[in-house]
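In response to reviewer comment 3 from the previous cycle, which asked for concrete evidence that the modeling workflow produces usable outputs, we include below a single protein chain processed end to end. The sequence was submitted unchanged, and the resulting structure tokens are shown without manual editing.
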Amino acid sequence: MRKQVVAICLQDQDTSFFKFRLSHLPCVEAELIPWDPHVIAERNEYELGLIRCSHPLQLFKEIPIACELFSFPLLVIVDDIRTQMLLLEGHDRLWYIDGSCDDDDLEEKILDICNGGMKLQQNQVSLTRREKEIYQLIYAGYTIQEIAYSLKISPSTVNAHKKKLFAKFKVHSATQMIAASADMMYQA
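The workflow returned the following structure tokens.
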């Protein structure tokens, strides 16, 4: 039986992305709709929502809204594998997959989630909101002083968060931390 999914298009290019990706999946009957959380939330016939995350800031804007309003699970297709570690904690209906996965992996993940066989990824590092912000700025190449200025905190506070990040990722440098977050995508 084909699974009823909704592909939520946050940006114009998401429409062509989903048309191409989902046309190869015989198990999926998908409706493509533009981002309008209140319209989507009123419809509960979907077994799964698909959202493409092409920019880390979407994790702090659209995806938290979707987690709160939608009654169905969400599969976030992540284009930047380092973004996956920023996914929101505490949402039992949120999963992710690397955007470069092949059709078989995507179809398997959709079927597993729709059939209730998937659990939230256990290999995610749990970060506070502030740690996520600092990680994002480190990833973007900001210096300690630039991060402090941007977040309106002291450089020593940034360093304290940075040390906590390194401890959580079990690394000793920013380069190692970014590499470790990328490796996590493939451990799932």
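Residues 44 and 71 are 7 Å apart (CA to CA). We consider this sufficient to address the reviewer's concern, and the full set will be provided in the supplementary archive.
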